[in-house]
Amino acid sequence: MNHQAPVYVRAEDDALLTVAYYHFHAWSGRRPFWAGLFTLLGGIPIMYFPYADLRLGNVSFAMATTAGSTSLIIGILLVTLGLVLWFQQGARVFAGVAAILLALVSLPMSNLGGFFIGFTASMVGGAMALAWVPAKRVDAAAEADGSGKAGAMAGHAGIPGPRDTETAYASETTAHADGGRNSAG
Question: Looking only at Cα atoms, what is the longest distance across the chain?
């Protein structure tokens, strides 16, 4: 989501689903939403498979192992970390590292990390959480620079403009003295 996009203002003839979509889109754009979703979805197969049984006619297959409680704990922690990423963006680094570590621990402890489904989703979610950074607003960047003007000496689309230098021309620097040649002695 573009954080510089104008804020959606509801018109009288807008449908309720359209309004809900725009509010959800604005909410999910200000947080590591996809990282939280992948982490949350990664915890579900990790905690589901040790307790699931598959019935084919009269034959029942059960994946119950002695690591069932460990799988449940790892899965609940991953779901909790996914929710933390949604509602506490400041803890994204901790949640990302914890999600990666729990995904790695789930390989030997809970049926190969939910048969690699939960492992893969949790690893992707943790990596996305570590990679996500909140966007800077344009006017906040201008205030941090001290100029107070958003457009003064700024380039296009986030490209910085020219800096103020002490020398007016490049030919006045020592690198360009004597025809561009430097002497060692």
Answer: 94
